[in-house]
Every structure is written in C-alpha cells, then in structure tokens.
Amino acid sequence: MEEHGDCTSGVCPGASTNGETVSIYVPHNHPLLQRKRALPWEALFAVMTRQWRRAGTNTAGRPGLAWDVTLYVPLVVLMLVKPLNARDMESSLAEHGVARVFMGRQDAPRPQMRDHSNVARAYAALGKEGRDESNALILQVAKDGGFADPRLLSSETTAQEWPMGSPNAPSILRGVAQRGGRALAKRNTRGVWGVAAALAQVQTIRRSVKAHHRFAKGKPAKRQVWTRLLTEVGQCVVHTRPMVARLASSRDRVTPSATATRGAMHAVAKRLIPQIVQWITTGVVAQGTIIHAGVTQARAIVRHKAGKQVEFGLPSLLSRLGGGEVFGTLMRGVVDESTMPLQALAGYRELLGTQATPELVVYERGG
After folding, report:
1. Of 340, 352, 328, nearest to 150 (Cα)?
2. Which of 24, 179, 191, 322 has minimal CB crowding within 10 Å?
3. Whether residues 275 and 184 fall in one domain
4. How many helices (H) and strands (E) does the chain have?
5. What is the Cα 357 distance to its own chain's centre?
6. Model's pTM, two decimal places?
7. Which segments in the chain show pLDDT lower than 70?
C-alpha cells in the first residue's frame, strides 16, 4: 500500500494537493527505539528469511517481484513486540510516528508500506516455528535489557478475535474456490489438461455465491442455492484432485506453489463442507468451524456467553511477563482449563530456560 497525502503540495515531490506537512519529535530514548537498538537484527533477518524461503517466497533473487525482507522483517518484529494483529498493524504504520521510525521509513515522503492482507500473509508465511524462534530472540533481549520482569507471569486462555463481522459460509466457500482458481491460473498457460474446465467451475461457484447473497430470499430459496453450491464445490475438488497428483512430480518452478495452494484448499473443503452441512441440517454451529479460507487456524468457538454465543478468532493461551511482554501458543482441540497454568509455565521455561521459575504466577480462571 502506498501512502498518499502525507506532504504539502510543493514541499515534497509528488505530494497531494490536500496534504499537510507535520513534524513529530521522537526522543532517542523512547522505549521502542531502545528496543530497536538492542535487538539482534542479523539473527532475526536470518531466521525470517530462512522461514520465508521455505514457504516459497521470492527471497533468493528469482525472476519476478522480490520479497522485500528489509520491509517485512521490522514489520513482523513490531507485530511481535506490541503485539498487534494485521489490521491494527496497518493502522499503526499509517498513524504512529514512532512505528515509522522503528521501521526505518521516517525519511521517505511517501514510504512504501503494506495493507493488512500483505501483513497477514507475511506473518502466516513465517510459520509457527519462525515466530517462536523470533519471539525467543526478542524476549531474551527484553529480559536482558530490563524491559520485561521474568518474576511475574500471568496467563489466560482466550480467542484472539478479528475485527470482522460474522463470517458467512458462502463467502468462505468462494474464498476456497478463488484461492484454488488463482493457483490453477498459474498453470493455464502451460497446457495442463483440465485446468480450463476447473477455472470455469470456479466461475460457476462465484455466480452461485452471488445468487445466494443477492437473489435468494427466504429459507427454501437459500437452501436450494446452498445445495447447488455445495455440489459445485465438491465437484471442483473431485475434478482437480487428480490434476494436483499429476503436477506433484513436475519440475516447473511455478508448480510447487500452485500445487501446495490447491492441496491446502482441498484440505479446507474436506473439513468445511461437513461443518456447513451440519449447520444447514441442525441449525447448530459446529465446534471449531473454519471461518477463513486463507487463515485456517481461525475458528468459530462456541462460548454460550450472554449476548455472544460464538466468538470468531484464534483460540490461544496467552502469557504476559511483568512489564507487558506477551508470548503464547495456539490451542488445538478441547481446552482443559486445569492444565493451562502448567502449559503456561512450560512455555515460560522454553523461552527463559529449563530452570527458570517466576516468583508469582497468576491464571485468569483461578488455576
């Protein structure tokens, strides 16, 4: 995302006619800038570049648009330090002068930044292993520099909710079809049999979703469109599965990424379709329902709270050290609250040493 309107016309090249120049003083001893100077940037660049390369990003100088590690590394580090989600990260970069200085983009009149979707892709491509390794480096510096007090540990299980409305299943299915379609489009110019038919099926799914949103009125009409939509998605999965198996042995550099995306969408559809069928037939949201085709860790979590029956987000165990440093892990399966304090302590020792023990441990639900 390229920022617009951040300079007065005539003062900075290419400035907006409606913009204004604002000078903001950021002290050298600001805590975030102290952290920036203390962080092991060489190690962080090595960790993140290695993980992004494993995820298939273009960090090795291949032809095409290169992955700007000088932008994405401090961006993800800032997400881990704050901590922020992708949308909050986008807002922080647009509005906060200290964040720009931390990123090293304060001198550019029109700094090149990223919107929340690019930020989310960078964070997801880093993977759990990369995030844990980076977070360990950051927390160690925070402890050594006095930013974090390891004597205090407080933890809770929560759903890291997204700033989003209630997701609807037609849009999720459309996301599955579109992501698979974009992966197939990379192969369309290489004469692979069956790609054109699969892309046509993706367009059919998109039209069915549009019909559901715009024209289906009342439960009978929506159920009819639902039945057609689920059938179309199932047919698309069945038709493309043999194609993915054939392409797995190809040596074309485009193929591994396209095949991995298509395979991931098959896995999402395999889990998502039964969840949707349960909701249509019973009216009950399945526990752990997928809510986003691109971020499959996010789930619909049935809470039965007053005014909020279902939460949408990432079920997590989050822990905070004295001073505000946060670390945590995603939860899998059914959460047993009685074991969470011990899991929080185990995560604490993974970061700070096997013999490290806080003086005070607090858990939200009285554990």
Report:
1. 352
2. 191
3. yes
4. 11, 6
5. 32
6. 0.60
7. 1-21, 61, 64, 109-111, 160-167, 186-194, 244, 246-258, 302-310, 333-334, 365-367
